[in-house]
Fold each of these.
Amino acid sequence: MMPAKLTPPSHAIPCPACAGASRFLLSATDRNRKTTAENFNYYSCANCGLIFIESCPKDMGPYYRGGYDPIPNSLEALREIAKREHFRSDPILRYQKGGRFLELGPWRGVLCSLMRDAGFEVTAIERDEACVSFLRNTIGVDAIQSVDPLETMRTMETGFDAIAAWHSMEHLPAPWLVIQEAARLLNPGGILLLAMPNPDSFEFRVLKSRWMHLDAPRHLYLFPVQPLIKLCGEQGLKLLEITTADEFSDIQSQQNWVSLARSVSNLRLIRAPLWRLFYLLGRRWQKKEGRGSAYCAVFARPAARLSQ
Ligand SMILES: [Zn+2]
């Protein structure tokens, strides 16, 4: 099937988060999964900095065909994976040693498993039925199946010590409201971990619509770092740390260059040296703090002031 012709729109549309004026940024197709030949327009808000898709498809289900990493067949197999992925839980464990943890969109539950093994009482909100079953029956955490985490969060009682959205916030229809709800659900002193693709990255600047982590149309929004910090600040959340130079950012970067090399040639003999060449060439800029492929940010809801 031939992709439809790219026709940048002549009109700008208001930012869904702040209603500010926006400018057309780019058009992208589903390069990663090729679920459709449609073009998706992305805009950038001149007021708050948010990058957003023009219209969020009503039913995202068909665009998720193929899923993500395979679900392991046992808890032991998941723990083997989790052993190598402590970079997911370490930023939380630097500030919280136990209590109640909520994860939004955990997929197969690597972080849920790490947090459970660290002694937390874990709740997860996940859209995929097979994942929910694995989270409940194999990992043994409280998993709620929902395609609308915001609505689910609105029904929940407060009292979480940590909440995380590990590369899931960009998939949600109104992430700014999810952040607001997370701030409500956190205990004073509670931690919010947000890991997302970095639109300030060297890769996005160079590759634009060919950047793997634009992932149209599954990624509905991209938050540059400063607007994210401002948005969280408006909800009373204070930034504790942020980096684009963690291990996961490097993994994301490698995946991006592999994907680009694959689009040049499917022949392994060409693809394999090519992605390494891309990766090495980009490394100097990519490694600069703020320019990495993804960021991991930790915010805190300040502890309540003691009454005088
Ligand atoms: Zn805006």
Amino acid sequence: MGRPSLRVVIPTIGRPSLSALLDSLEASAGPLPDAVVVVDDRPGPPHALDLGLRDAQWAALITVRRSGGRGPAAARNSGWLDNGHPCRQEWIAFLDDDVLVDHRWLSDLAEDLRASDAGVGGSQGEISVPLPTDRRPTDWERGTAGLAASSWITADMAYRTTALTAVGGFDERFPRAFREDADLALRVEDAGWSLARGTRRATHPVRPAPWNASLRQQRGNADDVLMAQLHGRHWRLRAHAPRGRRRTHLATAAAGAGALGALGARRYWAAAALGCAWAASTARFAWVRIAPGPRTRDEVAAMAATSVAIPFAASGHWLLGMWRHRDASAWSGRVPPPPPVAVFVDRDGTIVHDVPYNGDPDKVRPIHDALAALGRLRAAGIAVGVITNQSGIARGILSREQVQAVNDRVEQMLGPFDVWLVCPHGPDDGCSCRKPLPGMVLDGARKLGVRPEQCAVIGDIDADISAAAAAGAIGILVPNGATRPEEIANAGLLARTLDEAVDLLIGAA
Ligand SMILES: [Mg+2]
Ligand SMILES: [Zn+2]
């Protein structure tokens, strides 16, 4: 059994761990991905990227792009878009450049994707962080392990390309590898997909970090402000993100600043009281970080120093975030919807004037702009098909031959059409093709070898639009005198003429 087409995207800042990751990918058993895109996000002039030694097959799969130091969100967008448009592969597996995949990762991933039905927009791999066994983990090691336990992290997360397209990809206002993954996951869920936990495994070794790494991490407080702004106060619950210590940090920093202020104003008792409050809360914070750790001299010194600075840094970055993101609105994305690869048009009332139960080719009269509008679609390389309900056959009003004769006339006047689909059934026949059911859209897509979500339907009544929606295709209503007002009110996309409908799909001529 095959698996859906797959692209692996790895953003990197040139860490040596990249070639180790590629080694682990190459050693992993399972079907090869269709493409591997490594996105070099180092700023400045190009430096050679160390991809390690690859065998010929893997070397041919890998391409390298540059994203100019705009952060992992932007780098990942560069990886799944080709010239600004969604790539052809159905799934994108994002890996961070500091993980190592398991020896069965490719086959387990194939299984995870096969098991994901159409409603699943993303699949999370299982990440483990190996901690030292001979001593207690440091604050930094525990922090890395905690990150790996969170949900929907892009260290190993695969997304359906249609889901990424629908939400516009990663929000590039998140400048570092923090919260940009949770933000994307919440938006994909908001758009109606579910997220699944897969079975594939990867490990995330703890990187060596400088003693003050925890201080630098406080910049994430600004990203948390953006999350609250975009997803509401309860975003942490949905993202399974533990509540941080921000409130405590604010109180500690306020006490510290207050003590200094009081000292400057020569109010020594107030300064002493605030100073004690600050010292007590700083000491408590330091102890909480030191107690579970290895308590070596270096670790204790680093924890003591950073525990003094962190409340101030956290509060500062939080305030900065409040200012920077004060007007933040929903990410509209940088991905233009791709033009459809196939368009299905309704016949009666859409491309020809509606003559109820018409069996006479001589009564076929095209809508005035139909030939020109269909010609624009064909010139853009888009397949064009017709989907039409002809219940006159089931009702005994029309013969199949009469319907065929009328269709031949339409083909002669407005063709060539790439595919014709006719439902001969009545409303009570229980068929799966009669619009508003999606049968003809799904059949037409299959006959053309395209996916329904790459298709659009143009019609004059709600049944056409509902058939499109049920198939996952775009629907555009072009009302005529017979279209009911509530059908017009409910239409998502509305055009006055066929030509305008084509404008919506491929841009104005
Ligand atoms: Mg119609
Ligand atoms: Zn039918």
Amino acid sequence: MESWANLDFHLDLSGPGGLRHRLTASLREAVRSARLPPGTRLPASRSLAADLGIARNTVAEAYAELVAEGWLTARQGSGTVVAQRVEPPPPVKRRAVPDVRFDLTVSTPDITEFPRAEWVRSTRRALMAAPSEAFGPGDPQGRIELRTALAEYLARARGVRADPERIVVCSGFADAVRMFNRLLKPPVVVEEYGLEFHRSLWTSTVPLPVDDHGANTEQLPDDRRAVVMTPAHQFPLGGPLHPRRRASAVEWARRVDGLVLEDDYDGEFRYDRQPVGAVQGLDPEHVVYLGTSSKALSPALRIAWTVLPDRFVDPVLALKTDREQYISMLDQLTLADFLESGAYDSHVRRMRLKYQRRRDRLVEAVSPYASVSGIAAGMHAVLDTPHETAIVQTARERGIEVSSLSSFRHELSDDDRTGIVVSFGAPAFPRALASFTEVLAACC
Ligand SMILES: Cc1ncc(COP(=O)(O)O)c(C=O)c1O
């Protein structure tokens, strides 16, 4: 005999009305939504009644009603079957968007290059070496092993004055911004070009002009207390912050007792010279250093770090409630091993060479149509061109997504530069570049 339990199917008999009514409604809904597809044989009324612990008559009456309504058919000898005439649910309507063949909009690293084998080795070592205490509830500040490894790495590679006690591990730059949004009085000053998503995390922002020498910190207003900047490689324009402006940012912060939030998102990736050290090194009491693994490794890891002025450590930790907003201990220990074993350095070195070659190819390929502004760094570049709209539109028609420079502009900025922001981190970049160059030829 068939058993109802063999059907992976849930009957909800709760709700108003008598038992027969509820059973009928529940079966009807299952047929209507195609959870019970046409042709499905229902269990004999006796066995369904036994499974549900109700009277056989109740089931027989529910079946009869659904047969009368046309949802089920009953034939002598072949039992009760879901009727064929039931319409399948209409397909979900999707927006008509052209197929994206190449996404060159966001400057993520080449994710096909994630160092899987080395990461596995670090995971294994970290897991075997982890003390039992590591499997407990954890420290909202981040594992001490990771903070120690970061302090050493950041001092060596980025000139950051870091002490493990001043480092707080967080789940991405955005997570850090959300914390500071609760600690700082709005509005904060941001560069007039940047990610709209990041601006939207603040209660309110005001723009600071940016040129080839980075943000114009000489214009920082004395009635504000915080500025967010990308000194190593202005995002997205690509200039490095001029030494004079580095100094004046710090002088401003001291004068107004304010804070510089230094977004060092791709500081390790400089191709024409040694990377310039972090501004934080000039004054750790007035600069918050914000780093991330999103560019060097993968944005999917969601591991970032802040190096805080002493007076901010406790307020930031107070915002990190227990067991929330912190990263899996295993990922933290793995990254600590990855840094200490030198795997991080070799991965960055290897990727630097790749990106440098890609950027060289980009500059050469686009040279008949546009010049590339900014330094040789990072994973994206800006093409100076007045044909912004035509290029974005034509590229889209051909399945290539690129961003207009104006889409990064602060709504209160009166700047009118135009250009195209192109990421060269995309895995299929050589092919994407060939197609994109055809777009430029058509538009410029
Ligand atoms: C300008 C800028 N800052 C910071 C980040 C890092 O963000 P997250 O750590 O949230 O991935 C990115 C993206 O990777 C970025 O483009």
